[in-house]
Amino acid sequence: MDESSFILGVDLDGVVGDFYGAIRKIAAEWLNKPLESLTSEVSYGLGEWGIAELGGYERLHRFAVTQRNIFRDMEPIEHAPAVLRKISNQGIRIRIITHRLFLKYSHRASITQTVDWLDNYDIPYWDICFMNDKGAVGAHVYIDDMPDNVISLRKLGCKTIVFSNSTNRNLSGPRADNWFEVESLVMEAREEWKTGTAGLFGM
């Protein structure tokens, strides 16, 4: 069995990149509110910040991408680049799968910023897929933070790790609270794949 054919499907925002930390700072500017007034304990859609009064999430997202280069300038999640390099050096193929093109007329900025950011932090990957239907992209194990994505992937029988944040605490494991736990779970998934056992990821 060629171990290099084991594929890890990796979401970016909230998993590899600190999307919520970055957009919180941008939202404070956009809303003209003090940063400390915006809770870091958010749900998907960021309704806790009162963004609906200025047009909602899509308008904030567009501002963040086209005017503040969020996908280029956000910080990575702690340890994510180094652990991904280590995982790649173990012969695992990293496939980036992200739904960053959901807004019209900002695709070029989103793609360019994404590739520049990955290169800037020396994050290795074999493929990059910009799409919503992540289950249509073959991977042996996925890591994602968005509740709807995790639920959809698991319904399709895809082995999926939850990367913990305030948006997904109601989801069952396996889950990782940090990138060292991601590394351990990914290696366990590859071992199950190699040996044909069910283990933690049994469906």
Portion of residues within helices = 25-40%
Provide the β-strand percentage band.
Answer: 5-15%
User: Which spans of ≥5 residues are poorly predicted at pLDDT below 50?
Assistant: none
Overall pLDDT level: 91
Biggest sheet: strands, sense, closure? Answer: 6 strands, parallel
Q: What distance separates the N and C termini?
A: 22 Å
Contiguous helical run count: 7
Write down the overall geometry: globular
Strand segment tally: 6
> Which strand order do you get reading across the main beta sheet?
3-2-1-4-5-6
Assembly annotation: single chain
Briefly note the structural class of the backbone. Answer: alpha/beta
Gyration radius (Cα, Å) is 17 Å
Question: Element order, helices and strands?
Answer: EHHHHEHEEHEEH
